[in-house]
Amino acid sequence: MAGAKNHDYHILPPSAWPLIGSFSALIMFFGLVMWMHEMAYGSLIFGLGMIGVLFTFYSWWSDVIKEAHAGDHTPVVQLHLRYGMILFIASEVMFFVGWFWAWFDFSL
User: Fold this and answer.
1) CB atoms inside a 10 Å sphere around CB 45
2) What is the pLDDT of residues 57-86, one digit of tens each?
3) Would you call 28 exposed, middle or buried from its count of C-beta atoms within 10 A (0-12, 13-18, 19+)?
4) Cys bridge to 77: 12, 22, 46, 73, which one at CB 3.0-4.6 A?
5) Which runs of consecutive H residues, i.e. helices, occur in 1-74?
6) The pTM is what?
7) Which residue, among 74, 81, 20, 88, has the nearest Cα to 48 in the 3D structure?
8) Which contacts qualify for 30-37: CB closer than 8 Å, 24 or more apart?
9) Which contacts of 101-107 are long-range, i.e. CB under 8 A and separated by 24 or more positions?
């Protein structure tokens, strides 16, 4: 019974996608800086970083979809995924409200 599941949560296996995504974002950032300073191969390095970030997005979400089709997302996990998305959207709304509030306050 060591492998028996006695909870409603899905424990994720270790994934390399956060590390790959962060290195891809770092490469994309350095490529963007090089491109803005008109250094050689700046646009190429930026493009490689962008491809890496997009590949990470695609691969990571495909893993999430595979987990969902495998039945790993129990109703509790589905509820918490919804809560997480709602909180993310709310935080983005609050960020832009604060941003534009400060901009209008400064401009007026």
Assistant:
1) 20
2) 999 999 989 988 988 888 888 899 899 999
3) buried
4) 73
5) 17-36, 42-69
6) 0.70
7) 20
8) none
9) none
